[in-house]
User: Fold ferroxidase from Geospiza parvula.
Amino acid sequence: MITHRYVYDLFPGTFQTVELVAENPGTWLLHCHVADHIHAGMETTYTINKSGAVSETS
Ligand SMILES: [Cu+2]
Assistant:
């Protein structure tokens, strides 16, 4: 069973591995909701091309 989730709650010092199904073309933002982390640059974008290929864009 595939579960679609867009948000994960994490405790400090932990991580989550996710599997991406590249089915929605466009450029997407990957980030957390800790303001200090965003200001420190801990965010990125990735692009899903129409072919389904994924590339990091920043
Ligand atoms: Cu963070």
